Amino acid sequence: MRISRRLLSAAASASTANPSEIAFFSRLSQQWWDESGEFAFLHRMNPVRVGYIRDKILATIEDEAPTPAQGRETVRALGPRPLAGLDILDVGCGGGLLCESLARLGGRTLGIDASSSNVAIATLHASQDPRLSGSTPSSNERPQPLEYKHTTSEELLASGASRPQFDVVCSMEVLEHVDHPDKFLRSCADLVKPGGHLFLSTISRTPLSQFLTITMAENILGLVSRGTHDHTKYVKPSELVQFFSDELGWIRRPSNGSPGNLPFDQAELRGMAYLPWAGKWILSPRGAPMELDCNYLFWARKPKTPQ
Amino acid sequence: MTLILGPCCRQHARRFFTASKPTVWTARSFATEVPSSVEEFDVVIVGGGPAGLALATALASSKPILDTTSIALIEAGDLARVRNWSQPSGTFSNRVSSITNISQGFLDSIGAWAHVENSRVAKLEDMQVWDGLSDARIEFSASELRSLSGSGRVPQIAHMTENLNLQRGLLHRLNDFPSVKLLDNVKVDDIKAEEGDKGGWPTLKLSDGKTLRTRLLVGADGFNSPVKKYAGIRTYGWAYDTHAVVATMFHSPPFPGTPLTAYQRFLPTGPIAFLPLSDTAASLVWSTKPHLAAALKATHPDMINAAFRLPDTSMKVLYDVLLDTKSQVTPEEMAETIRWREESHGIAPLSSLSSIEAGGSAAVGGYGGEADMPPLVTAIQPGSVAGFPLRLSHAEVYIGEGAGARTALVGDAAHTIHPLAGQGLNMGLADVQALSKCIENAVQLGADIGSRTALLPYPRARYFENHKLLSATDKLHKLYETTFPPVVWARSAGLEVINELESVKSVLMMNAGRGGEASSLWDVAAAGVEGVSRAVHSAEAVARGVGNLGMALIQNALRK
Ligand SMILES: Cc1cc2nc3c(=O)[nH]c(=O)nc-3n(C[C@H](O)[C@H](O)[C@H](O)COP(=O)(O)OP(=O)(O)OC[C@H]3O[C@@H](n4cnc5c(N)ncnc54)[C@H](O)[C@@H]3O)c2cc1C
């Protein structure tokens, strides 16, 4: 019952804004696109996240095709634009790292961020790329629609009569920074169309993650600025699963209660690990020791009909 | 075991912040007006040599890349001349390369090998390499290659062909991809990073007044690479005090059934190689001191024949005759000198060691008689003699950073190597294969293919591989260059050991196998060369220690 208490207590707190955190990240946003700088790890992690999102969506298309052959054909026809035709929302888009990739893969992408300087940086960066800005399409391809908006998921949800609904909602490395995870997750979930996908990546609350993300990364190696992380805000995979099954009704409770054993067509948890000798992130092999103890991805499918 | 490391990432910022008035930003709101004269590309390749053309072909033949990526190639020379190149059969261009089986497999996979004119390709089945001082000899044959790699039949060690045949084949394959822009007869005059907030993308000024802006700029522009200069990438290395003289040589046909064989003799001035192109023609690559190379440009077949056969002491005499500016030697006088040197070494006029073609017996004696020596060269194709300075060089990195970001180097722009192992072009093709694979993966992940993150797998795949090859070839060059007796001793002893050691054989048969075998073969080879060079160092040390007497004893003992 731990998550409920945690979420409830967070919701009970009076303030919903956290100005000190916003100021902190605005300073960092200049460095967003420096691939060797503070965000180097994030740049390296991005291909794994994009690959996971792409593969999950393609697998769903294949699974739901009338025949396997038709599924393969649909996927083949999508070619290098596997996300074509999908409306995608990235909540907490930062400098636009994930958004740019999703847009190049064909998704109609909207990135939102609560920090206006992040949104400015992301917009500026995309404007330098003719494939994203459509300034001079020297190729045969139509430029990708990519938009950024200075707003929050709650505001987006509340804005306008036509509730925005997205085929895919992503929020990467955000959950561990929010003050009210329950509200936050609910708003993300509400922005997903029935039958759509939600992707999250975050850090679990374990001694290992405390050691790696705070002791090592902030204090010893100085890979990221001190104060980037607050361990108490980290969310465990089991807490996420519980929220999406008990609170939102998206997932059947895993038969044996283990978060690693989710119904394959409803949700999945995958660990991510950094291989220093290869200089890259990978999806941890399923069942690897401590697979979900630090960085992990969570995918869930919204039921097609309300539960 | 995988190490799990904390990411430390935070994409920041909070959702519960109340934005006063939500603004929609699109990239258009910022889009700086790019002057209409600026053409935008995703990839611009500078250089239409073998590496640049292969890269354009490899990128275009990948569907995911072609569907998402605009490609341009800039070449200072006239590509139409390469595309329409033809040469009377039986004659050959003097720029020839041995294409390893791995390279050939790659060219096949990008649809280019089918356009390489088969009748101008020679399949190398055998290789003879020996030391000019000790005569210690190693032989490789394609049949050994089979047992070495342990899998499947490999009918040839390598394919010998003219660079032009390869470049023409690549251009013909590029005809299939009209969207690839080939800009030839035009030079890159200047490259600048965009200033201000436009992202610092490389912008090229061409000699015809055009301006190109590109996401990724690839330097396939040879040793003096303008792209390398733009990227601020430094180069390590040095010029060898050596030039390579190349020429197309003619000779009588061999006995039917003789395997097509390459010959390389290591002289103290550098190796001389005979690389077969057909039954009656071969390419010469004679690496030697620059002043000799200059004199050899007016060379005569007898001199080449002698260089494969005469003992080094006599070669020195011939060099002196050649360099004697006061008395211009005629070919006849040279032949006479060679004949006299042979007699003094007790070489019979009709033996395979005789350099002078015996009149009237061309069919048999003219071939040299035995397979351990190359056929006697009877003539040199007019206009085919040329010289190239040789150098070892390696760019310190393959992808640019900071102000030189969005750049990558391939081929001779990234590295130049002594031709003794015939690897320069093959290394360039391996670069091209790795870079195009890296771009294909990046495109499928929606990455910005000019970004460092997207390009990083390329140097990871190639830098160390190339470094091993460069340093091993450099060591071989130095090993054979010396006349210092203990080193010669170690060398001949080493060579005889080498003869048993498959590892060192693969130095010269690099990448002769198929697919993934290459690197493992090479690792063994590199270890072998390290071993030999250590042996040389200890031989030098021993010699200094024991002095001349000890050295004489060692040598006597070795002679038995
Ligand atoms: C004697 C000799 C023998 C060799 N034998 C072998 C062998 O047996 N096997 C082997 O694998 N390799 C061999 N090599 C090496 C091989 O020839 C080279 O590695 C190969 O040709 C390099 O190809 P490249 O495309 O990288 O560069 P290059 O062939 O040098 O091409 C560079 C191109 O860039 C163009 N360029 C440069 N600057 C500009 C500019 N500013 N604007 C526009 N265009 C520009 C040039 O016009 C040129 O066409 C040999 C080399 C030598 C010297």
Task: Describe the protein's architecture and organization.
Chain A: S-adenosyl-L-methionine binds at residues 49, 92, 113, 172. Chain A: It is a peripheral membrane protein. Chain A: It comes from Tulasnella calospora MUT 4182. The complex is a heterodimer of chains A (307) and B (560). Chain A is of the alpha/beta class and 307 residues long. Chain A has 11 helices and 8 strands. Chain A has an 8-stranded mixed β-sheet with strand order 3-2-1-4-5-8-6-7, with helices on both faces. The two termini of chain A are 22 Å apart. Among the domains of chain B are: 242-388, no CATH class; 470-559, no CATH class. In chain B, 39% of the residues lie in helices and 22% in strands. Chain B has 18 helices and 20 strands. Chain B has helices at 27-30, 50-60, 63-68, 79-83, 101-109, 142-149, 163-174, 226-231, 290-296, 301-309, 312-323, 331-344, 424-444, 452-455, 457-481, 485-500, 502-508, 517-559, and strands at residues 24-26, 38-46, 71-75, 96-100, 122-124, 126-131, 137-141, 158-162, 181-184, 188-193, 202-206, 211-219, 235-251, 261-267, 270-276, 281-288, 377-380, 386-395, 407-409, 415-416. In chain B, strands 6, 7, 13, 14, 15, 16, 17, 18 and 20 form a 9-stranded mixed β-sheet that branches. In chain B, strands 2, 3, 9, 10, 11, 12 and 19 form a 7-stranded mixed β-sheet that branches. In chain B, helix 2 (50-60) runs parallel beside helix 13 and helix 17 packs across helix 18 (517-559). The model of chain B is unreliable at 1-23, 27-33, 359-369, 495-504, 513-527 and 539-560 (pLDDT under 50). Strand 3 (146-150) of chain A pairs antiparallel with strand 1 of chain B, so a sheet runs across the interface. Bound molecules: flavin-adenine dinucleotide. Flavin-adenine dinucleotide is lined by residues 46-52, 74-77, 97-98, 163, 187-188, 220-222, 226, 244, 246, 285, 388, 411-412, 419, 422-426, 428 of chain B. The site of flavin-adenine dinucleotide has 33 residues of chain B, from helix 2, strand 3, strand 4, strand 13 and helix 13.
